């Protein structure tokens, strides 16, 4: 444990000034084992689940009364609901990288969706746990590099992007059932002959089934060509369940990464899943329906864990990769493009306002994590350092995490985050530090080449008093603006050094 603690102390000095509060907090996590820590008899199984473009307000446990999510609601209520949980970025690829590395994607070149890849030399949770005796499996959307060097697949696959070839099996995963990027959420590899100009039209019985242009790939780099009809979320969970059952049979602890496609476009739902939403337009029916199908798949995943008798030794974490799809559209009164909702939060996917990065999330570990709710800011960046700390795994002092260990929270101890959460997405920058949030929109992208571009607009919000980010307090608290600006600047300098180490411009 001493080596793990040392890594975290070193990590905090990379882009932040020394913070006594954080040191005291983490020292608590490094004390002797209490409830919530790994039992002497064995290590817990880990299931990290992520929806795709699911808004903060798209689930019942966050107040949605339209979309039916009974399984998610039950799991959340029995677990710990994370009311201020943040995706690592406002788009999918960077967030996914943050889950596996505990590090900000700016450090290793995944600046946006469909850009870069997960470098081989980057810290990787799957590789680390496999080395510790875990079986590792990836199921669903990958989006951290291309899956084939031959032909074409999805957005970037094929010969033209060989430098970005980085399939899960080359990044620490024993078992794979993976797509490069998005697929239809029902019958995932096909599309209707004529979708009427939309991405949410289901196939009719008399329509020709056209190839969507992507594939599922296994750990051998082979296309999966059979058994891939029906709801995509349920298909992913069936593959995950097979993996879990095999791990239990062989008495191996496991890490299962389950990254659903729902409700990312193209949203397609079965007739059965559309029926409860018959009073809504077609787009909403498919959107709501594919979320309900994903919820049912989550119930099936939980059933697998329970029937295998491993509930009390399995940690399930659920979140989304960013806020709901949707940019302003003039023909809609509520200025949405899409039925997803961030509830009362400002912004949507691609924004660094709360609606783009605050996502629905919970932790479930029966008997280990007490039911309740937390208002502490947390992030997908925290997954990797938390698990490394939880499992007491040695870690190289060269790895500088941007996330922190949440072990005190898992143990039911008093917990306040002292380390800020930093965001960088093209022309937007943000820093969350406790109740304060600094947001900057620049005239040109914040890159490692130009880490200090002139700010076009700077905003400061107190999220405890104004979660909707409706009152800009920048003029009232210039010292706080300056303080968080320095945090961001220090981070960019640190990220620049890491990118150079990876050979990324």
Question: What is the gist of this entry?
Answer:
With 505 residues, this protein is an alpha/beta fold. The protein contains 12 helices and 20 strands. The strands form 5 sheets. It has a 10-stranded mixed sheet, sandwiched between helices. Strands 17-18-19-20 form a 4-stranded antiparallel sheet, with helices on one face.
What does this structure look like?
With 505 residues, the chain is of the alpha/beta class. It has 2 domains: 48-391, Alkaline Phosphatase, subunit A (3-Layer(aba) Sandwich), CATH 3.40.720.10; 426-502, Arylsulfatase, C-terminal domain (2-Layer Sandwich), CATH 3.30.1120. Helix content is 28%, strand content 17%. A hairpin with a 2-residue loop joins strand 17 (421-425) and strand 18. The longest helix is centred in the middle third of the chain and has 26 residues, at 282-307. It starts with a helix and ends with a helix.
CATH superfamily of the largest domain: Alkaline Phosphatase, subunit A
Task: Report the CATH topology name of the largest domain.
Answer: Alkaline Phosphatase, subunit A
Counting DSSP E segments of at least 2 residues, the number of strands comes to 20
Mean pLDDT: 86
Count of the separate structural domains: 2
Alpha carbon gyration radius: 22 Å
List low-confidence stretches: 1-41, 328-336, 448-453
The CATH class name of the largest domain reads Alpha Beta
CATH architecture of the largest domain: 3-Layer(aba) Sandwich
Q: List the strand order in the largest sheet.
A: 11-10-7-4-12-1-13-14-2-15
Biggest β-sheet: count, sense, barrel? 10 strands, mixed
How would you sum up the global shape? globular
Helix/strand class: alpha/beta
Give the proportion of residues in helices. 25-40%
Terminal-residue CA separation: 36 Å
Number of helices: 12
């Amino acid at each position: 444990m001493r080596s793990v603690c040392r890594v975290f102390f070193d990590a905090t000095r990379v882009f932040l000034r020394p913070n006594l509060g954080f040191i005291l907090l983490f020292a608590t996590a490094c004390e002797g084992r209490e409830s919530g820590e790994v039992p002497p008899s064995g290590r817990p199984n880990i299931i990290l689940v992520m929806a795709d473009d699911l808004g903060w307000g798209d689930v019942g446990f966050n107040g949605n009364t339209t979309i039916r999510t009974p399984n998610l609601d039950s799991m959340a209520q029995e677990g710990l609901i994370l009311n201020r949980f943040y995706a690592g970025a406002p788009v999918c690829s960077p967030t996914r990288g943050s889950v596996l590395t505990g590090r900000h994607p700016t450090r290793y070149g995944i600046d946006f969706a469909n850009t870069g890849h997960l470098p081989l030399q980057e810290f990787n949770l799957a590789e680390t746990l496999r080395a510790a005796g875990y079986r590792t499996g990836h199921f669903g959307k990958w989006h951290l590099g291309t899956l084939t060097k031959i032909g074409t697949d999805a957005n970037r696959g094929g010969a033209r992007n060989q430098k970005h070839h980085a399939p899960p099996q080359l990044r620490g995963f024993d078992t794979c059932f993976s797509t490069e990027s998005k697929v239809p959420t029902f019958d995932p590899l096909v599309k209707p002959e004529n979708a009427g100009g939309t991405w949410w039209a289901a196939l009719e019985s008399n329509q020709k089934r056209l190839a969507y242009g992507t594939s599922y790939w296994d750990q051998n780099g082979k296309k999966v060509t059979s058994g891939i009809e029906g709801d995509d979320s349920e298909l992913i969970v069936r593959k995950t369940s097979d993996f879990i059952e095999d791990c239990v049979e062989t008495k191996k602890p496991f890490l299962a990464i389950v990254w659903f496609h729902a409700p990312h476009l193209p949203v397609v739902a079965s007739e059965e899943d559309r029926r409860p939403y018959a009073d809504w337009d077609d787009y909403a029916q498919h959107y709501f329906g594919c979320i309900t199908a994903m919820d049912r798949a989550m119930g099936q995943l939980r059933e697998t864990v329970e029937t295998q008798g491993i509930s009390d030794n399995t940690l399930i974490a659920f979140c989304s990769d960013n806020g709901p799809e949707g940019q302003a559209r003039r023909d809609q009164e509520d200025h949405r493009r899409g039925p997803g909702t961030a509830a009362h939060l400002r912004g949507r996917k691609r924004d660094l306002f709360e609606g783009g990065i605050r996502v629905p999330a919970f932790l479930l570990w029966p008997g280990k994590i007490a039911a309740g709710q937390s208002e502490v800011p947390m992030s997908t960046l925290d997954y990797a350092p938390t698990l490394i700390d939880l499992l007491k795994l040695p870690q190289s002092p060269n790895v500088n995490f941007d996330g922190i260990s949440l072990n005190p929270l898992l143990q039911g101890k008093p917990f306040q985050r002292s380390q800020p959460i930093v965001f960088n997405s093209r022309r937007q920058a943000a820093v969350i530090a406790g109740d304060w949030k600094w947001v900057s929109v620049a005239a040109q992208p914040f890159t490692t080449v130009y880490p200090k571009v002139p700010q076009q607009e700077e905003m400061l919000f107190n999220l405890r008093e104004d979660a909707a980010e409706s009152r800009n307090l920048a003029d009232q608290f210039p010292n706080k603006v300056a303080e968080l600006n320095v945090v961001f600047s220090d981070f960019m300098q640190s990220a620049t050094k890491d990118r150079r180490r990876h050979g990324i411009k």
